[in-house]
Amino acid sequence: MPDYNPLSPEEQYVLLNKGTEPPGVGKYTDHTEVGTYLCRQCNARLYHSGSKFHSGCGWPSFDGELEGAVRHLPDADGQRTEIVCTNCEGHLGHVFKGERFTETNTRHCVNSISMTFHPEGSELPPVLHEGD
C-alpha cells in the first residue's frame, strides 16, 4: 500500500470508492482565493485558481486542469466522463463539455473533499507516489 495522506471515511468514500459529496457543502465551491488545488490523497497539483469559475452546479468548477494532472475515463454509468488524479487515480468528479460556461467549453465538476488548497506563494507539499 502506498504511503499516501491518511483519509477520513468521507474522503475515502469519494476518492477511493468514486462517491460524490452532496452539492453546496464543499469548502471550495465558492472559494475565490488565488493559488493551487492539490489532490487530497497524494498532493499532486491538479488545478490553478485561474481556471476556476462559478457554474452554479453546487461543486467547484474548473475549465481546465494543469497539464497531465487529470485522467479522463468513461464512467461506469456509460453517460459521463470520470476524472481521476493521474498520480494516484483518486476520484475527483466528472468533466462535461458543450455547456458554454467558458471559452474552453469544458467544466470539471470536482468534489471539494478530493482536494486541498494552497494559497499562491505558500510552499507546496511534496507529491506522494505509490511505494513512497
Structure description:
- With 132 residues, this protein is mainly beta.
- The chain has a single domain (9-119), classed as Peptide methionine sulfoxide reductase (Metal Binding Protein, Guanine Nucleotide Exchange Factor, Chain A), CATH 2.170.150.
- Helices cover 5% and strands 30% of the residues.
- The chain is built from 1 helix and 9 strands.
- The chain has one helix at 9-15; strands at residues 35-39, 45-48, 52-53, 61-62, 70-74, 81-85, 91-97, 106-110, 115-119.
Annotation keywords:
132 residues; mainly beta; Metal Binding Protein, Guanine Nucleotide Exchange Factor, Chain A; 30% strand
Percentage of residues in strands: 25-35%
The rough form would be described as globular
* Rg over alpha carbons: 14 Å
Helix-and-strand structural type = mainly beta
Low-confidence stretches: none
Strand and helix order: HEEEEEEEEE
DSSP E strands, number: 9
- CATH fold field value: Metal Binding Protein, Guanine Nucleotide Exchange Factor, Chain A
Give the termini separation: 9 Å
- CATH hierarchy: architecture: Beta Complex
Q: Count the helices. How many?
A: 1
> Largest sheet, described in full?
6 strands, antiparallel
Report helical residue fraction.
under 10%
User: Taking strands numbered 1, 2, ... along the chain, how are they ordered across the largest sheet?
Assistant: 3-4-8-7-6-5
Q: What is the CATH C level class, in words? A: Mainly Beta
Find the CATH superfamily: Peptide methionine sulfoxide reductase
Mean pLDDT: 95
